[in-house]
Amino acid sequence: MSSPRARTRASDLKACVRTPSPSGRRSRRQDIRTFATTTNTLLELRDWLVAEQVTLVVMEATGDYWRGAFYLLEDCLNVILVNAAHAKGLPGRKTDVADAAWLCQLGECGLLKASFVPPEPIRRLRDLTRYRSTLAAELGREAQRLEKELEDAGIKLSTVATDILGVSGRAMLTALIDGERDVHALAQMAKARMRPKIPALVEALTGNFGEHHAFLCRLHLERIDQLKAAIAELSARIEEEMRPFSQQLELLETIPGVGRATAEVIIAETGADMSRFRTAGHLASWAGVCPGHHESAGKHKSGRRRHGNRWLNGALGTAAMAASRTRATTYLGARYHRLVPRLGKKKALVAIEHSILTALTAVWHMLTDGVSYHDLGGDYFTRLDPERAMRRLSRQANALGFTVRFDPIEA
User: Fold this and answer.
1) For a Cys staple, 271 with which of 122, 371, 386, 407, CB 3.0–4.6 Å?
2) Over the stretch 237-259, which tens digit does the pLDDT of each residue have?
């Protein structure tokens, strides 16, 4: 068996080929070469590997530099991508050449696990959804910069308006930039539910807004408009690319907290093919929403969650926060509020992310079996253990100085 490994960098890579020794002994011949990362040179690498009759190519996932070599080699060779953390070399032997030889030996012995590399259509979807997420985050940061500029001018619009970029807030900001300084005229631009807040708006709009602030706020608003336009264009393209997955999207949107954008991210990151994950637990482990294991000498130490897929984690976090606000109507909301007193808000949100992927409301089961979401209800835990619910109510009543007696309802 022979196995090369490419150590990629921005400008070059190291490739190692191990083949049986010509002498016939149980030894290996090792050949290490350096190749540039340009397309023509990578084609030379491919021809060399094919000529050497290589049966397995092992590549380390180093940033995004692995992509060019991987995509050129995967058409005619068996290529696997491995996590760098799974193939650490020995301390004191950290060079590109040593790394290439070390991974080559590990691959030959079958000690490496291939990472999930989706097919080309899913890779295109990933590029689109990830860029949209990046622009959405930048949009939020630009709005914060705008609010900071208003604070510098003494304008407290954010204390009155929930969204300073809404219809009313945008009209007031545009008027301020155009030179309007009459706070009463500005407050009268409030629309709909902002009308009762006009007295508070008069106070909030009184400040030291000058030409310097107007210049910067105009740039912030222009940048916000550009980002919104780019996000809208990306969303339209994503909708076209998502047409083959329309059924899966409909199933995912039935989960509490999972909207259209979140469902699109889940499809793009998992590939919608659950056969790659043996069980729902494997999907949760890959996503990084389950506790790690750290046991030594029979003692269990802190097992922090793995980093996982940060794009999927971000989408699941948004869905978990939305689901946590449905306490009275959904199982996920009831589970969140049940866990908060014991785990805290952050760990409870991670538990909800895990539930969305694997528990009774599992993405894995929905995409595997093609079934819709079935909610257990906000009163699931009360029905599961009614005596516990009664004890909790008794404790709360006793703390208020009351005594409670429970009598069954006659039919």
Assistant:
1) 122
2) 999 999 999 888 888 888 888 88
- Span between the terminal Cα atoms of the chain, in Å: 75
> What's 274's DSSP letter?
G
The enclosing H or E element of 368 equals helix 363-369
Helix 331-343 × helix 310-323 angle, to 10°: 100
The three-class DSSP label of residue 95 is coil
Tell me the C-alpha distance between 73 and 59, whole Å.
11
What is the average pLDDT value for the chain, to the nearest integer?
84
Identify whether the C-beta of residue 218 lies closer than 8 Å to the C-beta of residue 177: yes
pLDDT at 226: 97
Dist CA 38 CA 248 (whole Å): 39
β partners of residue 36: 12
DSSP state of 77: S
Q: Is 230 helix (H, G, I), strand (E, B) or coil?
A: helix
Return the pLDDT at 19: 84
Outline where 153-210 has alpha helix (H): 167-178, 183-187, 198-204
Burial of 82 (0-12, 13-18, 19+ CB in 10 A): buried
At residue 13, what are phi and psi to the nearest 5 degrees? -145, 155
What residues contact residue 330 under an 8 Å CB cut-off, 6+ apart? 256, 323, 375, 377, 378
Strand partners, 300: 295
> What residues contact residue 159 under an 8 Å CB cut-off, 6+ apart?
204
Block residue for tokens 């990151």: 269
The count of other CB atoms within 10 Å of the CB of residue 370 is 10
Number of C-beta neighbours around residue 280 at 10 A: 18
Alpha-carbon separation of residue 141 from 123, 135, 217 (angstroms):
27, 10, 14
Each residue's pLDDT tens digit, 28-72:
888 899 999 899 999 999 999 999 889 899 998 877 888 888 999
How does residue 303 score in pLDDT terms, banded at 50, 70 and 90? low
β-sheet with 12-20: strand ranges across:
28-36, 12-20, 5-8, 57-60, 79-82
More reliable by pLDDT, 225 or 4: 225
Residue 307's pLDDT is 75
Confidence of residue 332 (pLDDT cuts 50, 70, 90): confident
